[in-house]
Specification:
By secondary structure, the chain is an alpha+beta fold. The protein has 16 helices and 19 strands.
Length: 461
């Protein structure tokens, strides 16, 4: 009996979907770690406090050499286990000394990268089992500072619970309303790379491509993503001049990087089914004038992949991007298919705890600290125009707050067409700046009479 496929869109879409699932099923059996992840992703939340139990996890532990219980030093192995490196661990995001020591020791043990053939470079896809933004940032930083990527490239795939992540040199208050984020239970985090502010949730997949600095290639990485989208769902996307991935001029992926010695990484987001309402609300700042030299984000219209193809979901997106990475040559966009894939180290589930990566808990502690998230903010000034009203007249003035290292250093008021600044006496001076404290100062000033302000300007009180 012959079956005729109908030609309408729904039937063609079903046929393509069935073929795609058949292909996915074939190679899933070759990657048991990913198969285990896909089965459990929809129902089992990550528990980062639990020691690794699966055989794939234990294999990865052996490869990394992270079986030692000490947090003083960690012995790391390269891809072929013949180039051992001993590096100091427990560095902080703000500690240049620890980073320099680790980098110097890695550099001293580096192989001659030019002598390594493309075919000799192995590739792995690491899947973080944590959905905590600070843990995943710590994992990213740990690999960057401690791993030898000379003949072993790594793609780290991770997703977070709702959070807003700003670039290293950004001002969180010019990117979002920090107080409202806290009220909604949305975490604020600062990463160690540049770039703009982004919103993450479980509908957003993050990709971090690790290589030696000499092999850093952002276009290669972005093309891995665009090719994966086309191969899996026939979604056509483009890379624009800002290295964003767009579909019909709407952004589905932003990008940032950390370039050091000897290692580098490039990471990007992929919007699959993120909550666009929360995304929009989270990236709205307080209506005041911020004077800051911090890096500002460039607003862009965004699109979820599920709006283009309703079959898109994060677990399948993860597998599509990971498989595209493994089947592609290490330094050129050459498709090696299943033969190339079978030569690689495949998918590995990662449990980012001290038992796996000694020192990572200290890294997480630093990434989640107030000193890093808020205190790292470049100096800025907040200005707000106010109008005081008495029974007979009103007065316009300007509130000015200087913020240094996240603390309100100077609080003053100024009349229009007057350069004189009058200090405001308040117990909030020297306290942490946030929108709630700013509004507390504004509310207090509105209760002051215009005559008292005028007397203060004249120096009589």
């Amino acid at each position: 009996m012959q079956v005729n496929w109908c030609s309408n869109k729904d039937c063609l879409g079903l046929r393509k979907r069935v073929c795609g699932l058949h292909q996915t099923w074939k190679w899933l059996h070759q990657t048991p770690a990913l198969h285990e992840y896909l089965i459990s992703a929809s129902s089992v939340a990550a528990d980062t406090a639990t020691a690794p139990k699966s055989t794939s996890q234990l294999r990865l532990l052996h490869r990394l050499g992270a079986t030692s219980t000490t947090t003083e030093i960690t012995r790391l192995y390269s891809a072929n286990n013949d180039n051992n490196n001993v590096t100091a661990t427990t560095p902080s995001p703000t500690s240049a000394t620890s980073t320099t020591k680790a980098g110097n020791k890695l550099q001293s043990k580096r192989i001659n990268l030019a002598a390594v053939a493309d075919a000799d470079i192995k590739k792995s896809v690491f899947i973080s089992q944590s959905h905590d933004i600070f843990t995943n940032l710590a994992l990213e930083d740990w690999l960057y500072k401690n791993f030898d990527f000379g003949n072993h490239h790594v793609l780290l795939l991770w997703a977070n619970d709702p959070c807003v992540v700003i670039g290293r040199h950004q001002n969180p208050f010019t990117e979002a309303n920090v107080s409202k984020l806290m009220e909604r239970g949305i975490t604020l985090a600062r990463r160690n790379s540049g770039g703009g502010a982004v919103y993450h949730d479980r509908g957003n997949l993050n990709c971090t491509f690790f290589t030696p600095r000499e092999r850093y290639n952002r276009k290669y990485n972005l093309n891995i993503v665009t090719r994966a989208l086309f191969r899996e769902w026939a979604i056509k996307s483009e890379i624009n001049d800002r290295d964003d991935i767009v579909i019909k001029n709407k952004k589905i992926s932003g990008t940032a990087a950390k370039l050091g010695r000897p290692n580098a990484y490039h990471h990007c987001t992929i919007l699959a089914s993120a909550n666009k309402l929360h995304l929009g609300e989270s990236l709205v700042k307080e209506p005041v004038n911020y004077i800051s030299r911090a890096t500002a984000s460039v607003p862009s219209p965004i699109r979820n992949l599920v709006d283009v193809n309703r079959c898109v979901n994060v677990p399948q997106l993860l597998s599509a991007v990971g498989y595209e990475y493994l089947r592609t040559a290490a330094t050129a966009l050459e498709d090696g298919g299943s033969i190339q894939t079978m030569k690689q180290r495949g998918f590995q589930l990662i449990n980012p705890t001290d038992k796996w990566f000694p020192g990572i808990e200290e890294l997480r502690k630093n990434y989640s600290s107030w000193d890093w998230v808020i205190g790292k903010t470049p100096k800025f000034t907040v200005e707000k125009d106010l109008e005081l009203k008495d029974d007979d007249r009103g007065m316009k003035l300007k509130l000015s707050v200087d913020v240094v290292a996240g603390l309100m250093a100077n609080i003053s008021i100024q009349l229009p067409q007057n350069d004189q600044l009058v200090p405001v006496v308040t117990p909030l001076q020297g306290q942490a700046y946030n929108e709630q404290n700013l509004n507390g100062i504004i509310d207090a000033l509105k209760m002051v009479s215009t005559s008292n302000v005028q007397q203060a300007m004249n120096g009589s009180i």
